[in-house]
């Protein structure tokens, strides 16, 4: 990224924060903040703000590429080292991302699907109301869910880790976890009752011969499950285990590795501040009110569609293909005219520079 591009991007970020007043998180004076550069998402932390006005004045003045705040509440959020802050509790936070080189609707759809699974677990298995969940687009590849119910504030790392293990089916015990057992039994019955021979063959490790036998014995299998439960299907060696694994894999929440799972367990984690810009995409880390209808690649655009000219990196231009604002975009030739939001995205990705 050349100097001209850096100047252009900083100007655009400043314009955004000049035009928008960013809401502060609850009890802002008890939160720790961290800010980032183009090179590091969190380059400086242990910052604090006494009010929403102080926060917004800072954003207008500095226009950081990233700004995050603590899920935790502290008596002295600006103190360091960490053990001098006096931890008072922490929101329960989840981070659901999907790996993708460039933003696209398939990837964002997968992120939405995993997030919806998590919402279902929190509302059905943990009995939180939907109104208690703050759902935010991360500004990049997925969603954050914040829960501030008083019952979660004092949970320690181990208890938070147990919640992650539950929704990801890690160490799942069907004799102990009745909610999971009920979910799986319902899905197993639905699958068996509505499957033909080809449906049974979709289960990993089930061949055509076994699939035909299972199809012929559908009533026997479903009857056993209804009478005795999923743990007592007799006469079909290995089938129960394979089917349960297949269904569990579809029902569990899939995080992007240990990094995203650790967000929930980390009681001092900093998470993206809703309403602010993501320094890797130029999109808004936006609060979502209607999750079903929300289109992150359209509804979270921070910049307009006025055209700008950019110079594309020769080595990567053939690989650049992404989707925004309902359309598929690519880099084209060495020089391209693109909408402002797309140009800023590509600049932040480090694959083009501004031409003025």
Number of strands: 14
Structural class: alpha+beta
Q: Which whole number gives the mean pLDDT?
A: 89
Biggest β-sheet: strands ordered side by side in the sheet: 2-1-3-9
Order of helices and strands: HEEHEEEEHEEHHHHHHHHEHEEEEHE
User: Percent range for helical residues?
Assistant: 25-40%
Which CATH class of the largest domain applies here?
Answer: Alpha Beta
Helices, by number, come to 13
* CA-based gyration radius: 24 Å
The CATH homologous superfamily name of the largest domain equals: DNA primase, PRIM domain
Examine the coordinates and then state which fold CATH places here, giving the name of the CATH topology of the largest domain: DNA primase, PRIM domain
Approximately how much beta-strand content do the residues carry? 15-25%
Task: Walk me through this protein's architecture.
The chain is an alpha+beta fold. It has helices at residues 3-19, 52-62, 105-125, 150-153, 157-167, 178-194, 197-201, 208-216, 218-228, 239-251, 257-265, 296-299, 340-349; strands spanning 33-36, 44-47, 66-70, 72-74, 87-90, 92-97, 133-137, 142-147, 270-272, 307-312, 321-324, 327-330, 335-339, 352-355. It folds into three domains: 3-168 and 255-299, DNA primase, PRIM domain; 178-251; 307-355, Ribosomal Protein L9, domain 1, CATH 3.40.5. The radius of gyration is 24 Å and the shape is flat.
What does this entry show, briefly?
The protein is of the alpha+beta class and 356 residues long.
């Amino acid at each position: 990224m050349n100097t001209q591009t850096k100047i252009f991007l900083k100007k655009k970020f400043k314009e955004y924060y000049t035009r928008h007043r960013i809401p502060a998180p609850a009890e802002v004076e008890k939160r720790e903040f961290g800010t980032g550069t183009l090179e590091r998402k969190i380059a400086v932390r242990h910052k604090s703000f006494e009010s929403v006005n102080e926060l917004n004045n800072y954003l207008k003045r500095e226009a950081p590429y990233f700004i995050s705040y603590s899920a935790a509440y502290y008596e002295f959020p600006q103190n360091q080292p960490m053990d001098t802050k006096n931890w008072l509790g922490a929101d329960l936070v989840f981070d659901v991302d999907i790996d993708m080189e460039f933003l696209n609707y398939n990837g964002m759809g997968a992120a939405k699907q995993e997030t919806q699974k998590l919402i279902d677990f929190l509302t059905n298995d943990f009995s939180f109301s939907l109104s208690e969940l703050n759902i935010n687009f991360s500004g990049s590849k997925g969603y954050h869910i914040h829960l501030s119910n008083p019952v979660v504030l004092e949970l320690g790392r181990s208890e938070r880790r147990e919640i992650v293990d539950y929704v990801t089916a890690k160490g799942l015990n069907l004799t102990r976890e009745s909610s999971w057992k009920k979910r799986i039994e319902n899905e197993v019955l639905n699958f068996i009752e509505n499957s033909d021979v080809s449906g049974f063959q979709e289960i990993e490790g089930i061949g055509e011969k076994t699939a035909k036998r299972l199809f012929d014995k559908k009533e026997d299998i479903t009857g056993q499950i209804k009478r005795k439960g999923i743990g007592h299907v007799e006469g079909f060696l290995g089938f129960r285990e394979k089917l349960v694994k297949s269904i569990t894999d579809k029902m569990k929440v899939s995080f992007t590795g240990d990094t995203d799972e650790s967000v929930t367990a980390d009681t001092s984690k900093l998470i993206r501040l809703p309403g602010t810009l993501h320094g890797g995409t130029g999109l808004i880390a936006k609060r979502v009110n209607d999750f079903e209808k929300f289109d992150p690649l359209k509804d979270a655009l921070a910049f307009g569609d006025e055209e700008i000219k950019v110079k594309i990196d020769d080595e990567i231009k053939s690989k650049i293909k992404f989707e925004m604002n309902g359309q598929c975009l690519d880099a084209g030739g060495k020089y391209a005219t693109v909408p402002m939001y797309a140009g800023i995205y590509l600049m932040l990705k480090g694959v083009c520079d501004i031409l003025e």
